[in-house]
Inverse folding.
């Protein structure tokens, strides 16, 4: 601005801020209450996991990779195991593939319920948040019974899964899903009808289908813009071709559509779990593989709860990977986030809408901190 | 106001977050399948030290006792992943569902 009355101001949100749960820096350019530009920096929590993976054996890496993200730990280990298995060129037993789907879908339900609670909290609707998290306990209980731990499950291992299921456990999972389904349907009803949710989310954070495709958004963020894309359907990695399911999309393109897409995905995940349990094939659950992986490169991708997760492993024939590269869904969704924050909906984005828009992509910044920023913009 | 119905329903069913305590009434019990405190069946252990090799957090040390080599687990370093149990060729390592491990002395967290 040329005059002494500067109209556009910089407002920093983060890296430590009450409205942000994770270290990220949003430098907002505001004109009054309206956001007109945004500069994003997420490299505050770089943990060097990819480098650390080069010094550990394939077996030890399983637990390091699992800790990239607590909530998507099943998806992380699944992607890693798929990459290592494709290095060996071995198929894993059918029963293990189905059990992997069960674990993956339970963790997806868990992640989406957690996100829904956080979204309700960001909207300012804390009663909703507490009710959702009370029902999330059901999935945590199922995860504990299935794998032996509530969050860090260590369920997928190289060559299969770790634990078999008993008939007793299967009926327990069935009962848990039966308890959960009416609750999720009720939350969907509330999310569609409640005025405070509608006022805070409808028309906020618009991401048009063209923008979503141009910024390579992934996961529920992309599907809420009406684009039908899901790794489970496009590139079935673990017997997903034998499981009938719908790819959920919505044409809303706003934060409200992202809530509805995730709630519908929970209902779809419940159906997938039920199908896998009823059609569970008999047989072994583990294909033992040698400790040393053959020389070569492998890539794998998985539909994690937040979107497409990608792993690349390069092996030099030893028992440690030569290079391990991870690309998480949050990193892919960040350009879309910038478009949303500068979007023009029914009205331009207000500062008060920023936490809701940020939460609507389900960010996980310490997963996304894969690169260090070295000055400049 | 739309969650009012849910609040009333939960009150009627007496559903609520349980109060947890460390001992006595309301003590938390983990699921039997929980991966808790690690233990060793000494008579089965052959001292192959595979558990030490595979442990991702270097919580296992191999020591010599009267019967030969055996692992010692440091639970303050352990992250309860259960890889030692998986790697053990003779199934000598087990994980109990013991959930709470608060102690005053670090020595008490060594499983010998």
């Amino acid at each position: 601005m040329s005059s002494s009355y500067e109209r556009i101001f910089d407002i920093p949100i983060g890296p430590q801020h009450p409205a942000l749960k994770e270290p990220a820096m949003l430098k907002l350019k505001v004109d009054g209450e309206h956001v007109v530009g945004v500069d994003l920096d997420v490299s505050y929590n770089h943990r060097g996991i990819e480098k650390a993976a080069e010094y550990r054996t394939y077996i030890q890496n399983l637990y390091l990779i699992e800790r990239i993200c607590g909530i998507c730990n099943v998806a992380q280990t699944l992607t890693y195991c798929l990459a290592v298995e494709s290095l060996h060129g071995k198929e894993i037993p059918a029963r293990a593939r189905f059990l992997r789907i069960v674990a993956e879908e339970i963790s997806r339900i868990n992640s989406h319920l957690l996100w829904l609670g956080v979204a309700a909290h960001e909207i300012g609707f804390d009663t909703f948040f507490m009710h959702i998290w009370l029902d999330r306990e059901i999935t945590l209980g199922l995860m504990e019974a299935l794998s032996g731990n509530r969050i860090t499950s260590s369920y997928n291992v190289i060559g299969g899964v770790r634990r078999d299921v008993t008939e007793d456990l299967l009926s327990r999972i069935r009962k848990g899903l039966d308890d959960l389904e009416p609750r999720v349907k009720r939350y969907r009803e509330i999310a569609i009808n409640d005025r405070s949710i509608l006022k805070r989310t409808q028309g906020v954070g618009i991401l048009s289908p063209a923008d979503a495709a141009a910024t390579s958004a992934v996961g529920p963020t992309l599907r809420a813009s009406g684009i039908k894309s899901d790794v489970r359907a496009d590139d079935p990695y673990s017997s997903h071709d034998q499981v009938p399911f719908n790819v959920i999309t919505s044409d809303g393109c706003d934060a409200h559509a992202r809530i509805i897409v995730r709630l519908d995905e929970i209902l779809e995940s419940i159906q997938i779990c039920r199908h896998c349990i009823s059609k569970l094939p008999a047989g072994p659950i583990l294909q033992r593989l040698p400790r040393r992986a053959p020389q070569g490169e492998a890539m794998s991708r998985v539909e994690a709860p937040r979107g497409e997760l990608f792993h690349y492993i390069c092996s030099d024939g030893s028992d440690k990977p030569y290079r391990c590269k991870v690309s998480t869904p949050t990193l892919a969704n960040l350009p879309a986030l910038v478009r949303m924050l500068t979007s023009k909906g029914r009205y331009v984005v207000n500062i008060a809408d920023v936490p809701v828009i940020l939460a609507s992509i389900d960010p996980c910044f310490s997963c996304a901190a894969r690169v260090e920023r070295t000055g400049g913009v | 106001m739309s969650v009012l119905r849910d609040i009333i329903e939960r009150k009627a069913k007496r559903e609520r977050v349980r109060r947890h305590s460390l001992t006595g009434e309301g003590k938390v019990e983990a699921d039997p399948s929980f991966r808790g405190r690690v233990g060793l069946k000494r008579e089965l252990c052959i001292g192959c030290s595979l558990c030490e090799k595979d442990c991702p957090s270097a919580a296992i040390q191999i020591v010599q006792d009267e019967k030969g080599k055996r692992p010692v687990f440091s639970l303050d370093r352990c992250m309860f992943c259960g890889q030692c149990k998986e790697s053990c060729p003779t199934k000598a390592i087990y994980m109990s569902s013991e959930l709470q491990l608060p102690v005053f002395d670090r020595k008490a967290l060594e499983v010998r």
